UniProtKB/TrEMBL annotation:
Top-rank taxon: Bacteria
InterPro entries: ArsR-like_HTH, WH-like_DNA-bd_sf, WH_DNA-bd_sf
Pfam families: HTH_20 (PF12840)
Protein name: Transcriptional regulator
Membrane-spanning residues: none
Region Disordered, residue ranges: 65-84
Protein backbone atom coordinates (compact mmCIF):
# COMPACT_ATOMS: atom_id res chain seq x y z
CA UNK A 1 0.00 0.00 0.00
CA UNK A 2 2.84 2.43 0.86
CA UNK A 3 4.35 1.95 -2.61
CA UNK A 4 1.02 2.72 -4.28
CA UNK A 5 0.63 5.87 -2.16
CA UNK A 6 4.11 7.01 -3.15
CA UNK A 7 3.30 6.61 -6.84
CA UNK A 8 -0.02 8.42 -6.40
CA UNK A 9 1.81 11.37 -4.80
CA UNK A 10 3.88 11.75 -7.97
CA UNK A 11 0.75 12.00 -10.13
CA UNK A 12 0.54 15.66 -9.13
CA UNK A 13 2.57 17.54 -11.79
CA UNK A 14 3.97 20.09 -9.31
CA UNK A 15 5.14 17.40 -6.91
CA UNK A 16 6.67 15.41 -9.73
CA UNK A 17 8.51 18.49 -10.97
CA UNK A 18 9.82 19.23 -7.48
CA UNK A 19 10.86 15.61 -6.97
CA UNK A 20 12.70 15.47 -10.29
CA UNK A 21 14.44 18.75 -9.51
CA UNK A 22 15.64 17.58 -6.08
CA UNK A 23 16.94 14.19 -7.27
CA UNK A 24 18.75 15.81 -10.19
CA UNK A 25 20.92 17.92 -7.88
CA UNK A 26 24.23 16.80 -6.38
CA UNK A 27 23.48 18.51 -3.04
CA UNK A 28 20.66 18.90 -0.54
CA UNK A 29 18.07 21.40 -1.78
CA UNK A 30 16.47 24.17 0.26
CA UNK A 31 12.84 25.22 -0.08
CA UNK A 32 13.89 28.45 -1.76
CA UNK A 33 16.04 26.64 -4.33
CA UNK A 34 13.33 24.07 -5.05
CA UNK A 35 10.71 26.79 -5.46
CA UNK A 36 12.93 28.70 -7.88
CA UNK A 37 13.78 25.51 -9.79
CA UNK A 38 10.10 24.64 -10.20
CA UNK A 39 9.02 28.22 -10.87
CA UNK A 40 6.51 28.34 -7.99
CA UNK A 41 6.17 30.16 -4.68
CA UNK A 42 8.10 29.08 -1.59
CA UNK A 43 4.98 28.31 0.47
CA UNK A 44 3.53 26.07 -2.24
CA UNK A 45 6.90 24.38 -2.70
CA UNK A 46 7.18 23.73 1.04
CA UNK A 47 3.71 22.13 1.08
CA UNK A 48 4.46 19.75 -1.79
CA UNK A 49 8.00 18.94 -0.61
CA UNK A 50 6.66 17.84 2.75
CA UNK A 51 4.06 15.67 1.02
CA UNK A 52 6.96 13.97 -0.80
CA UNK A 53 8.68 13.45 2.55
CA UNK A 54 5.49 11.95 4.04
CA UNK A 55 5.37 9.50 1.11
CA UNK A 56 8.96 8.41 1.75
CA UNK A 57 10.24 9.81 -1.55
CA UNK A 58 12.39 12.54 0.01
CA UNK A 59 14.17 12.90 3.34
CA UNK A 60 15.13 16.08 5.17
CA UNK A 61 17.76 17.49 7.43
CA UNK A 62 18.14 20.90 9.05
CA UNK A 63 21.37 22.86 8.69
CA UNK A 64 22.48 26.48 8.78
CA UNK A 65 23.55 27.36 5.26
CA UNK A 66 25.86 30.11 6.55
CA UNK A 67 28.06 27.58 8.37
CA UNK A 68 27.89 29.77 11.49
CA UNK A 69 26.37 28.90 14.85
CA UNK A 70 25.22 30.78 17.91
CA UNK A 71 23.30 34.07 18.20
CA UNK A 72 22.87 35.88 14.90
CA UNK A 73 23.56 32.80 12.80
CA UNK A 74 19.95 32.54 11.67
CA UNK A 75 17.53 29.63 11.76
CA UNK A 76 18.59 26.28 10.28
CA UNK A 77 17.24 25.68 6.79
CA UNK A 78 15.20 22.58 5.96
CA UNK A 79 17.04 20.70 3.21
CA UNK A 80 15.70 17.91 0.99
CA UNK A 81 17.31 14.99 -0.82
CA UNK A 82 16.15 11.77 -2.43
CA UNK A 83 15.24 8.96 -0.08
CA UNK A 84 17.11 5.68 -0.27
CA UNK A 85 13.83 3.76 -0.19
CA UNK A 86 12.75 1.78 -3.23
CA UNK A 87 9.15 1.70 -4.43
CA UNK A 88 7.64 -0.98 -6.63
CA UNK A 89 4.03 -1.45 -7.60
CA UNK A 90 2.58 -4.67 -8.99
CA UNK A 91 -1.01 -5.91 -8.75
CA UNK A 92 -1.15 -8.63 -7.67
CA UNK A 93 2.12 -8.42 -5.74
CA UNK A 94 5.18 -10.17 -7.18
CA UNK A 95 8.35 -10.71 -5.16
CA UNK A 96 11.25 -10.43 -7.61
CA UNK A 97 13.50 -8.95 -4.93
CA UNK A 98 13.52 -12.13 -2.84
CA UNK A 99 14.26 -14.24 -5.90
CA UNK A 100 17.13 -11.93 -6.88
CA UNK A 101 18.53 -12.02 -3.36
CA UNK A 102 18.41 -15.82 -3.23
CA UNK A 103 20.10 -16.11 -6.62
CA UNK A 104 22.81 -13.66 -5.54
CA UNK A 105 23.33 -15.61 -2.31
CA UNK A 106 23.79 -18.86 -4.22
CA UNK A 107 26.12 -17.25 -6.78
CA UNK A 108 28.15 -15.68 -3.98
CA UNK A 109 28.43 -18.94 -2.07
CA UNK A 110 29.34 -20.93 -5.18
CA UNK A 111 31.94 -18.32 -6.20
CA UNK A 112 30.33 -17.74 -9.57
CA UNK A 113 31.77 -14.24 -9.84
CA UNK A 114 33.51 -14.95 -13.15
CA UNK A 115 30.44 -16.48 -14.74
CA UNK A 116 28.26 -13.58 -13.56
CA UNK A 117 30.70 -10.97 -14.89
CA UNK A 118 30.85 -12.74 -18.27
CA UNK A 119 27.05 -12.74 -18.45
CA UNK A 120 27.01 -9.06 -17.47
CA UNK A 121 29.46 -8.18 -20.26
CA UNK A 122 27.18 -9.94 -22.76
CA UNK A 123 24.18 -8.04 -21.41
CA UNK A 124 26.09 -4.74 -21.70
CA UNK A 125 26.96 -5.49 -25.32
CA UNK A 126 23.31 -6.33 -26.05
CA UNK A 127 22.17 -3.07 -24.43
CA UNK A 128 24.65 -1.17 -26.56
CA UNK A 129 23.41 -2.87 -29.73
CA UNK A 130 19.81 -2.03 -28.82
CA UNK A 131 20.69 1.61 -28.14
CA UNK A 132 22.22 2.14 -31.57
CA UNK A 133 25.12 4.56 -32.14
CA UNK A 134 26.34 5.95 -28.81
CA UNK A 135 29.30 8.28 -29.10
CA UNK A 136 30.63 10.61 -26.44
CA UNK A 137 29.88 11.24 -22.80
CA UNK A 138 26.58 13.07 -23.41
CA UNK A 139 25.16 10.15 -25.40
CA UNK A 140 26.26 7.67 -22.71
CA UNK A 141 24.70 9.92 -20.08
CA UNK A 142 21.35 9.85 -21.89
CA UNK A 143 21.30 6.03 -22.07
CA UNK A 144 22.37 5.56 -18.45
CA UNK A 145 19.69 8.02 -17.33
CA UNK A 146 17.03 5.81 -18.90
CA UNK A 147 18.51 2.79 -17.12
CA UNK A 148 18.21 4.49 -13.73
CA UNK A 149 21.82 5.41 -12.94
CA UNK A 150 21.16 9.17 -12.55
CA UNK A 151 24.52 10.12 -14.15
CA UNK A 152 25.98 13.53 -13.33
CA UNK A 153 28.94 15.12 -15.06
CA UNK A 154 31.76 16.17 -12.76
CA UNK A 155 33.14 19.71 -12.65
CA UNK A 156 35.49 19.36 -15.63
CA UNK A 157 33.06 17.30 -17.70
CA UNK A 158 35.49 14.41 -18.06
CA UNK A 159 33.56 11.85 -16.02
CA UNK A 160 30.06 10.73 -15.09
CA UNK A 161 29.36 10.07 -11.42
CA UNK A 162 26.41 7.71 -11.05
CA UNK A 163 24.19 9.02 -8.28
CA UNK A 164 21.92 5.97 -8.16
CA UNK A 165 22.67 2.26 -8.20
CA UNK A 166 19.89 0.28 -9.93
CA UNK A 167 21.00 -2.73 -7.87
CA UNK A 168 21.21 -0.89 -4.54
CA UNK A 169 19.56 -3.45 -2.24
CA UNK A 170 21.55 -6.38 -3.67
CA UNK A 171 24.82 -4.43 -3.65
CA UNK A 172 24.42 -3.76 0.06
CA UNK A 173 23.99 -7.48 0.78
CA UNK A 174 26.51 -8.83 -1.74
CA UNK A 175 28.84 -5.88 -2.52
CA UNK A 176 31.72 -7.71 -4.19
CA UNK A 177 29.46 -9.85 -6.37
CA UNK A 178 27.01 -7.14 -7.45
CA UNK A 179 29.53 -4.31 -7.85
CA UNK A 180 31.68 -6.61 -9.99
CA UNK A 181 28.61 -7.45 -12.08
CA UNK A 182 27.74 -3.77 -12.43
CA UNK A 183 31.26 -2.88 -13.57
CA UNK A 184 31.23 -5.70 -16.12
CA UNK A 185 27.81 -4.59 -17.40
CA UNK A 186 29.06 -1.06 -18.06
CA UNK A 187 32.34 -2.35 -19.51
CA UNK A 188 30.33 -4.39 -22.00
CA UNK A 189 28.19 -1.36 -22.83
CA UNK A 190 31.24 0.88 -23.38
CA UNK A 191 33.32 -1.75 -25.16
CA UNK A 192 33.30 -0.03 -28.57
CA UNK A 193 32.99 3.55 -27.31
CA UNK A 194 36.25 5.27 -28.14
CA UNK A 195 37.78 7.35 -25.37
CA UNK A 196 35.54 6.16 -22.52
CA UNK A 197 35.88 3.51 -19.86
CA UNK A 198 34.13 2.31 -16.70
CA UNK A 199 36.09 1.84 -13.50
CA UNK A 200 35.36 0.96 -9.90
CA UNK A 201 35.10 4.10 -7.79
CA UNK A 202 32.91 3.49 -4.71
CA UNK A 203 31.84 6.63 -2.87
CA UNK A 204 29.25 7.14 -0.10
CA UNK A 205 25.74 7.50 -1.47
CA UNK A 206 26.82 6.84 -5.07
CA UNK A 207 26.99 3.91 -7.47
CA UNK A 208 30.24 1.94 -7.20
CA UNK A 209 31.21 2.62 -10.84
CA UNK A 210 32.29 5.81 -12.61
CA UNK A 211 32.37 6.38 -16.37
CA UNK A 212 35.27 8.56 -17.43
CA UNK A 213 37.45 9.62 -20.31
CA UNK A 214 40.15 7.02 -20.97
CA UNK A 215 42.41 9.47 -22.79
CA UNK A 216 45.84 9.76 -21.22
CA UNK A 217 44.92 6.87 -18.88
CA UNK A 218 47.15 3.88 -19.33
CA UNK A 219 46.33 2.12 -16.04
Amino acid sequence: MEDIEAIVVLQDPVRRQLYEYVVDQDHEVSRNEAAEGAGIGRTLAAFHLDKLVDAGLLVTESRRLTGRSGPGAGRPAKLYRRSGEEHHVSVPARDYRTAADLLAEVADGARLDGELRAAAVREGRAARAAAGPVEGLDAVRAVLSVRGYEPRADADGAALRLANCPFHVLSERHPALICGMNLALLEGFLEDTEGLRARMDPQPGMCCVTVESSKNNDD
